[in-house]
Design goal:
The chain has 292 residues and is of the alpha/beta class. The chain is 31% helix and 24% strand. The structure holds alpha-D-ribofuranose (RIB).
Length: 292
């Protein structure tokens, strides 16, 4: 731990997108047009959401990523600095920032299309990036930037004793050497089915099950489940990111405590619209745990 003993230093390597969020009673089927009920632009991206979630949950967080040089870049950068996430390793590259088109229905379920933009240009790690990873307690990654960059970061983290948390989302086949450098994998139940045997190589596996909570499987055969606080769902977008960021911030307290904390954070994130805008503060998470 760096700053003080209970504050882990977390480096999040990942995406940052402007989310274009449309709300509608129900999502259209192919070929159908429906009338929507609202529209909002909210900073998102799995990487940025998890960075903000880890910060709000109590970590000291540095974000490694890229924005473009378009109209969205300033607001995306500000969303991180406003949340007190360090952005000295956030680069600006020529071209558009990442964009996510999101449709949220009355049940709070969503459909998302991501166009990577600047995130796809995160193909190299600088000496300063590598130094930040080596100095951190935890490296947290997802798969909305090039996989080779994630693999290089995980390799470097492992070599320097930095714990690697991977949220392999969107799920896809990954090089075997990436899995061997992952300490903790966080997947939803769909991703768990898709990735299946790959997950066997990971020491700590966390499977999120939406309103049902989350399951844990440890290196010594330990298994347990944690329930999720029951809440009124508005929008599930970013709930997995709130869970994962909170888990990273609490990992040093042990899997049992960290899963309980993360389940509370994920549930609270579903009670508000948007991704980064829905991520709960530390005090809210604590209150939700106490209320359980
Ligand atoms: O996990 C939710 C996120 O997925 C959204 O913020 C969107 O940008 C996509 O990355």
């Amino acid at each position: 731990m760096t700053v003080e003993s209970d504050v882990p230093a977390i480096v999040v390597l990942g995406s940052i997108n402007m989310d274009l969020v449309t709300t509608t009673a129900r999502r259209p089927v192919p070929g159908e047009t429906v009338l929507g009920s609202g529209f909002a632009m909210v900073p998102g991206g799995k990487g940025a959401n998890q960075a903000i979630a880890a910060r709000r949950a109590g970590g000291e967080v540095r974000f490694l990523g890229a924005v473009g040089d378009d109209v969205f870049a300033g607001e995306l950068r500000r969303s991180l600095t406003d949340a007190a996430v360090f952005t000295d390793r956030l680069r600006t590259v020529a071209g558009p920032s990442g964009i996510a088109t999101i449709v949220v229905d009355d049940d709070g379920e969503n459909s998302i299309i991501v166009v990577g933009g600047a995130n796809t240009r995160m193909s190299e790690l600088t000496e300063d990036d590598l130094a930040a990873i080596a100095a951190a307690d935890i490296l947290l990654c997802q798969l909305e930037i090039p996989v080779d960059t994630v693999a290089a970061a995980a390799r470097h983290a492992r070599a320097h004793g930095t714990t690697v948390l991977l949220n392999p989302s969107p799920a896809r086949a990954l090089p075997a050497d990436l899995w061997t450098n992952v300490d903790v994998a966080v997947v939803n139940s769909g991703e768990a089915e898709q990735l299946d045997a790959d997950l066997d190589t990971v020491a700590h596996l966390v499977v999120t099950r939406g309103a049902a909570g989350a399951d844990y499987r440890g290196p010594d055969g330990a298994r347990f489940s944690r329930p999720s606080p029951q809440v009124d769902v508005v929008d599930t977008t970013g709930a997995g990111d709130a869970f994962t960021g909170a888990l990273a911030a609490a990992w040093h307290r042990g899997p049992e405590w960290a899963l309980t904390w993360a389940c509370a954070a994920g549930a609270l994130a579903t009670t508000r619209l948007g991704a980064s805008s829905s991520i709960p503060a530390r005090e809210e998470i604590t209150a939700a745990m106490v209320a359980e």
